Amino acid sequence: MISIFLLFIFVNVFGDFNKKTNKISRDILKRIEKEIDEEKNILHVIPNYSIPREGPGENGDAVILTDEEKKLGEEELKVWFMNMQAK
Question: Which residues form the signal peptide (predicted)?
Answer without folding.
Answer: 1-15
